[in-house]
Amino acid sequence: MNGKARKKLQKHAVKIGGIAAVAGIGYYAYKKWEGNRAVEPPPVPPSHASLPSAPPAPLAIEPPPLPVELPLKMVLAMIAAAAADGSIDTVEMAALATAIEDAPVTPEEKARLAAALNQPPTVEAVAVLAANPEEASEIYGAALTAIDLDTPSEHLFLKRLSRALQLEDSLVVTLHE
Question: Which of 24, 33, 128, 162 could cross-link with 167 by S-S, CB 3.0 to 4.6 Å?
Answer without folding.
Answer: 162
